[in-house]
Amino acid sequence: MTEDLTEKTSEQLREIATTRQMWNNELRKYVAAALDRLSTALIVVGFLGPLVAVMASPDILQHDNNFWLLMKFIAVVLCVVLSFGLHIGGRLVLKRGYLNVHL
Q: What is the pTM of this model?
């Protein structure tokens, strides 16, 4: 009788551990996907936004607005770098499991 209880308990513990591992894996995938989507949004907003602004009002390029052009260039570079960092962060979450979740 005691052996049956011990076997059942260890079997239940293995099942709980397996369920927890599956839950952690799904959560890691969710976080990595969210980071990747955020990096894509940064590319769209940071890179395409200034291009659309210049296309919508081409007189920006004709006037002496070097300061504003420099600020747009810095914004584009910053968004691209942040996007790349978020993408790499998502890959690290998947690869190494930097997400420590305890129930």
A: 0.66
